[in-house]
Amino acid sequence: MQPDLTEYLLRLGDDRLVLGHRLSEWCGHAPILEEDIALANIALDLVGQATLLLTVAAQAENTGRDADALAYLRDGIDYRNALLVELPNGDFAVTIARQFLFSTFAMLQAEGLQRSANHDLAGIATKMHKESRYHVRHSGEWMLKLGDGTEESHRRLQDAVNDLWRYTGELFATDEMEQRLVAAKVAVDSSALEAGWRVQVSDILQRAGITMPETKWMQRGGRAGRHTEHLSHMLAEMQTLQRQYPGASW
């Protein structure tokens, strides 16, 4: 059970750590000051969630590593995040679409995890659910603004959804490890979240005038450590200080 739990917690933590870092790259570059602050706050939420999840993962792993070691001293192949969250920010429409698609999934996932038999995970999920609801509301409002804005903003948002859609299927992929934890009432069956996710996503897309892509083939590999080149570039920057000064403390 412990190896399964460690792997599952890494998936949860890595999703949020990687996306949190991606959003932090907008600091000082967002289109307006309020959005600069909003994206930074969402990034802090995600990194905070990742810290809690990776702390519990380190405890479950029980090899002497802590959350910092898991975050900063693993190679890309050891990360278990979905490919969606490691993709470059692109323009503002890409960032917003990615955030909306992931946050809707994360909100549903956290809602289920609040009933986890693992009390640590259930407690963290309560925090995640509250924050994810805000992330969905914030990104959803921007989806409507961009979709119902100018011809240019509408085109960019439609292009973003089209490009990102093929990465969403991985969020709902399940395997034997996850199913063992589902049977033990620790994890949430990811595949069971897809129907609810589609309802909420399609509602916003329809209201924004955005066509839902018909792509059925989905990109996968992140859960097994097979990532895009973008993750290695991101980690080279994110891990620089810890790699240069291992074990350093303030």
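Second entry:
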Amino acid sequence: MEQAQTIAEEQELLAEEFELFDDVRDKIEYVIDLGKKLPPLDDAHKIEPNKVHGCQSQVWLIADHDPSRNVVHFQADSDAIIVRGLIGIVMRLYSDRPPEEILQNPPTVFETIGLGRMLTPGRANGLASMVKRVRDLAAQHAKTVQVGA
């Protein structure tokens, strides 16, 4: 699936996709399907400095900045399939976006689709930790761009 031009547009697309499902079980199955499509992270990156703390499951997240396009590319993985699906949503929203756009667009779609109500408190905290890590890494890359300018 091709990524929307902006994070706001991607959030709208995700909301539309989740509207197709009537019950929570179908929505969770869709999240799991998204996780199955997530490319695995190379084991060399599954190290302590890349871990996202605050997640029940193990989650690793890395970021690379492409200065030629001024975008941050994220890769992430987890040992839990539902968490991989949540990562897939986060990647759709934020990977390959300018750091400034990432920082200006909090993930409102999770509330829109009711994901907060579907997840256990531990999973919801983990999702918040992943988003915080993405935004922290984007902020680091935004500073790098400003210093290099």
